[in-house]
């Protein structure tokens, strides 16, 4: 007897011995029911194919692909495009699908029905390889006709391959076009920077940083030339002063001989000697021999003038009846040549000083010019690098577009053509049969459990005590008597003696 849902092993054995036939009967019946359901349900056939991603024929280190998006994202994007109504509705029209339902059902529902029949599944990366990118994907189409399922699978696969090739080519073309526009703008900016740099170099030619050492060398050379010119000018002035002193002396002597040393001539000679002395004192020190000699001449001439008797009537200077001596003429020509040489040296000295000032200005402006030139050069170099980078990318994109157009880049390859299913994928008779057997087994166990719960007979002393709430005094054992007339065994009735 089972009470409160509690039972033991003896109860299970007792029910199993009595109702053993329920479990196999339930299993067989429900297994047959599962097979029958599988036979009655409409058949569905699945056509499958595998599409692999073929690597480019040209290595990626030579031509980098324009499309670097992960295959899973590309596949999801293409799946949304191909499974859209605009792409599936022509498929329904082409293969005349759902002919009986077209009049009663809206086209959107038919497209949804076809969309659920198509399954796109990415393939898992191969184990043991470093490349974790998706190697490809599989396309499966489930339909009630195997030939139609194969045709739909072929059409969907072709759509994927065409869409991939079109996307790659369009992406490469758009990228090339965009890079070409950017390249034109970069070329304009590069030309602008180049023009600024050239204009700056023309404006500050001579003050550029690479010319600084040359400017310093030119400045040193000009300083040396200035020193040499200054020394030459000083020597020329000394020579001119000395030559003039000799000329004045020679002229005084010659005039003295011509005027017989009259007082006026002596005074003129004294004035000339004083002028010569002043010129010599401007060039030499008071102890210089020429200065000392000139002073002694002046003193002697002053003594002569002082000792000369006063003359009432001064004789006019006698007219020159003869030409100047050649020595005086030569001294006068030499003096004139010296004047020309001094003028040339003075002019040259001024020119050198002007050049020195120009070179000094260039050297002083060199740091500022260098700073501005660095900024212009940096801007030009940045524009040049950007232009070269865009040019390289544009050329690579053009080659990638050419590869995509020639179908030499990364593309989809069908591993096997869509299969023609010989057996239906749904319903699966084996799965239905196994499910029926499992259901029958579970139902049989449930029936046995219910029978145990419904059993109200006493089988143990515990059952009697619990039901009657009286203690058992004694029990009569079960006696089995073998009689020829009886096939089975007689069971004596148990008598229970209970005490109050």
Q: How would you describe what is shown here?
A:
The protein has 500 residues and is of the alpha+beta class. Among the domains are: 1-39 and 438-457, no CATH class; 211-310 and 321-389; 468-500, no CATH class. It contains twelve helices and six strands. The protein has helices spanning 9-18, 22-40, 71-82, 85-95, 107-117, 146-203, 212-259, 263-283, 289-307, 326-405, 429-454, 461-468; strands at 45-54, 118-122, 136-143, 411-416, 480-481, 490-491. The strands form two sheets. It has a four-stranded antiparallel β-sheet. Strands 5-6 form a two-stranded antiparallel sheet. Strand 5 (480-481) and strand 6 (490-491) form a beta hairpin. Helix 6 (146-203) runs antiparallel to helix 10 (326-405). It is rod-shaped. It starts with 8 loop residues before the first helix and ends in a 9-residue tail after the last strand.
List the helices and strands and how they pair.
Layout: H1 9-18, H2 22-40, E1 45-54, H3 71-82, H4 85-95, H5 107-117, E2 118-122, E3 136-143, H6 146-203, H7 212-259, H8 263-283, H9 289-307, H10 326-405, E4 411-416, H11 429-454, H12 461-468, E5 480-481, E6 490-491
Antiparallel strand pairs: 1-3, 1-4, 2-3, 5-6
Helix pairs in contact: 2-11, 4-5, 6-10, 7-8, 7-10, 8-9
């Amino acid at each position: 007897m089972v009470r409160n849902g509690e039972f033991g092993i003896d109860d299970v054995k007792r029910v199993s011995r009595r109702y053993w036939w329920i479990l196999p009967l339930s299993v067989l019946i429900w297994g047959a029911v599962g097979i029958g359901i599988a036979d009655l349900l409409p058949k569905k056939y699945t056509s499958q194919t595998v599409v692999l991603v073929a690597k480019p024929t040209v290595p990626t280190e030579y031509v980098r692909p324009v499309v670097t998006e992960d295959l899973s994202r590309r596949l999801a994007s293409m799946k949304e495009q191909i499974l859209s109504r605009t792409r599936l509705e022509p498929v329904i029209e082409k293969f005349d699908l759902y002919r009986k339902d077209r009049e009663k059902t809206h086209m959107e529902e038919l497209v949804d029905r076809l969309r659920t029949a198509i399954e796109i599944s990415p393939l898992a990366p191969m184990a043991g390889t470093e490349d974790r990118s998706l190697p490809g994907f599989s396309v499966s189409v489930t339909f009630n006709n195997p030939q139609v399922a194969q045709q739909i699978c072929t059409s969907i696969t072709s759509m994927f391959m065409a869409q991939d090739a079109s996307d790659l080519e369009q992406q490469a073309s758009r990228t090339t076009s965009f890079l070409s526009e950017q390249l034109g703008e970069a070329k304009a900016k590069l030309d602008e920077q180049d023009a600024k740099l050239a204009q700056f170099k023309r404006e500050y030619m001579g003050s550029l940083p690479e010319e600084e050492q040359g400017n310093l060398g030119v400045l040193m050379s000009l300083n040396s030339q200035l020193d040499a010119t200054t020394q030459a000018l000083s020597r020329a002035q000394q020579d001119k002063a000395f030559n003039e002193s000799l000329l004045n002396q020679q002229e005084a002597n010659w005039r003295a001989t011509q005027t017989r040393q009259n007082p006026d001539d002596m005074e003129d000679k004294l004035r000339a000697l004083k002028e010569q002395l002043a010129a010599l004192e401007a060039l030499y020190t008071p102890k210089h021999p020429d200065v000392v000699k000139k002073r002694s001449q002046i003193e002697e001439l002053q003594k002569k003038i002082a000792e000369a008797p006063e003359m009432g009537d001064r004789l006019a200077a006698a007219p020159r009846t003869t030409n100047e001596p050649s020595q005086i003429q030569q001294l006068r020509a030499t003096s004139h040549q010296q004047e020309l040489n001094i003028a040339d040296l003075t002019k040259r000295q001024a020119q050198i000083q002007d050049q020195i000032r120009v070179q000094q200005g260039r050297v002083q402006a060199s740091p500022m010019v260098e700073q501005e030139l660095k900024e212009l050069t940096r801007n030009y170099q940045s524009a040049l690098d950007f232009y070269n980078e865009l040019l390289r990318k544009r050329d690579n994109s053009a080659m990638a577009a050419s590869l995509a157009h020639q179908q030499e880049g990364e593309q989809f390859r069908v591993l096997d053509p869509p299969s023609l299913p010989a057996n239906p994928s749904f319903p699966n008779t084996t799965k239905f049969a196994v499910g029926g057997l499992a259901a029958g087994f579970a139902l049989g166990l449930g029936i046995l459990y219910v029978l145990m719960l419904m059993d109200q007979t006493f089988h143990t002393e515990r059952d009697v005590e619990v039901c009657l709430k009286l203690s058992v005094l004694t029990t009569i054992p079960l006696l089995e008597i073998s009689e020829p007339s009886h096939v089975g065994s007689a069971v004596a009735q148990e008598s229970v003696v209970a005490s109050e």
